Description:
Layout: H1 21-39, H2 45-48, H3 59-77, H4 90-109, H5 113-117, E1 120-121, E2 125-126, H6 127-151, E3 160-161, E4 166-167
Antiparallel strand pairs: 1-2, 3-4
Helix pairs in contact: 1-4, 1-6, 3-4, 3-6
Amino acid sequence: MESPENLPFSNITKQPDDYSPGSVAARMVESLGFRYRYASQDLKETDYDFKAEKEARTIGETIEHIYGLSIVIRNAVIQNPYVKKENIDLETTRKETLLILKETYNQLLGMTESELEKISIRDTYPFWIVINGPLTDAIWHSGQIASLRRANGNPMPKGVNVFLGEYKDAN
Length: 171
C-alpha cells in the first residue's frame, strides 16, 4: 500500500483564515478527503470483496464509485477535464481519488462568490448541485466503507478524530 505520508488529507486541523465562499467549499472537499483517506486506509484484500448483502456494493465497488464522484466534482470545478483511468487496481484508485480531491480543494480555496457562481455540473446545474449531489454522496459512501470494514473485522485505524480532523498514530 502507498505510504500514508505521501497522500493528502492526513490532518486537516489547520483551518482557512476566513469564511469566504471558496474556503468553505474547499473545506467540504477537504473533509471528504480526510474521511475517505482513513476509511480506505489499510484495507486488506478480503475487505475489497466484502458487502453487507447480496444486492449491495462491495467495499471495492464503493471505492470505484467514490473515484467516479471525485472526477465529477473535480471536472465541475476545474475546466480542464480529468479522464478516468481504466483498469487500475483499488490502491491506485484510492490514491488517484485523494489526489483529485486535493487538486479540487486547491482550486476552490481562493475562489470568490462570482467564480463559484460560474461552476456548473453537466453544463446545466449550479455549484449547489455539486454540494448536495456528488460531494455529499461521496461523504456518505466514505461512511459506508468505514462501517463495512468494521463489519468485516477491520475497523478504521485508531487515532482518527473526525471531529477535529486529526490523526494521531496509536501505534
